[in-house]
Design brief:
This protein is of the alpha+beta class. Helices cover 24% and strands 37% of the residues. Strands 1, 2, 3, 4, 5, 6, 7 and 8 form an eight-stranded antiparallel beta sheet that branches. A hairpin with a 2-residue loop joins strand 1 and strand 2. Helix 4 crosses helix 5. 17% of the residues are buried. InterPro entries: Cro/C1-type_HTH, Cupin_2, Lambda_DNA-bd_dom_sf, RmlC-like_jellyroll, RmlC_Cupin_sf, TransReg_Diox_bact_type. This is XRE family transcriptional regulator. Keywords: DNA-binding.
C-alpha cells in the first residue's frame, strides 16, 4: 500500500509504544493482541477491529477515540492567524478542531458586554499585561498580569478594560474537557 494513500496510519502505535519504553511483547501482554498482529498493525499491513482499538488505547492511557484521532491525523496542521476587531479588542485568531486561540490587545476604558456568540465551550482568559475585569452572572473577577480565569462561555459575561491590556483567550469545546 502506498503511504500517501493511507487514510489511517497506525504506525502511531509504534511511536506510542517506544515513547512508553515498551516492547511488542509488553503491549501484547497488556492488551491481549498477538505480537504478530501488533507488528502488522504498526506497519499498516492490516486493519484494526474496534475491540483491538479499545484494548490498545487502554495500554497507553488513551480512549479509543484518541487513538483513532492520532492514526487519522498524525501530521501537524499549520494555519495562518486571521486579524479582526470586536468591540475594544484587536484580535489575532487561529482555530483548529475543538479549539479557538485568540491573542488580543485592548485600550483602557473599553467594554465588551456581548462577546461573540459561543457554542458549548469553556473560555479561558489569561491576562498577559494590563488589568481587566470580567463579570459573570454571579461573580466579578479582576485579573492582573499572569492571572487566568476559566468559565463556561455559555454564561453571560463581559470584559471591562481597566488598563491597556494584552490577553490570550482560548475557547475549548466541552468535549475536550481537562
Amino acid at each position: 500500500m502506498n503511504p500517501n494513500e493511507l487514510t489511517l496510519d497506525f504506525s502511531v502505535v509504534r511511536d506510542l509504544r517506544k515513547r512508553a519504553g515498551m516492547t511488542l511483547d509488553d503491549v501484547s501482554q497488556k492488551s491481549g493482541v498477538s505480537i504478530a498482529g501488533l507488528s502488522k498493525l504498526e506497519r499498516n499491513q492490516n486493519m484494526i477491529e474496534l475491540d483491538t482499538l479499545y484494548r490498545l488505547a487502554r495500554v497507553f492511557g488513551l480512549s479509543a477515540t484518541d487513538l483513532l484521532n492520532l492514526a487519522e491525523s498524525c501530521s501537524a496542521h499549520c494555519k495562518t492567524a486571521e486579524q479582526y476587531t470586536s468591540g475594544p479588542f484587536n484580535f489575532e485568531k487561529v482555530s483548529f478542531k475543538g479549539i479557538d486561540c485568540f491573542q488580543a490587545t485592548a485600550k483602557r476604558g473599553g467594554n465588551l458586554s456581548k462577546p461573540e456568540a459561543h457554542g458549548d465551550e469553556f473560555e479561558i482568559c489569561w491576562l498577559r499585561s494590563g488589568r481587566i475585569r470580567i463579570t459573570l452572572p454571579r461573580e466579578t473577577h479582576e485579573l492582573s498580569p499572569g492571572q487566568a480565569l476559566k468559565f463556561d462561555a455559555a454564561l453571560a459575561h463581559s470584559y471591562e478594560i481597566l488598563e491597556d491590556s494584552e490577553v490570550t483567550i482560548i475557547h475549548l469545546e466541552k468535549t475536550h474537557r481537562f
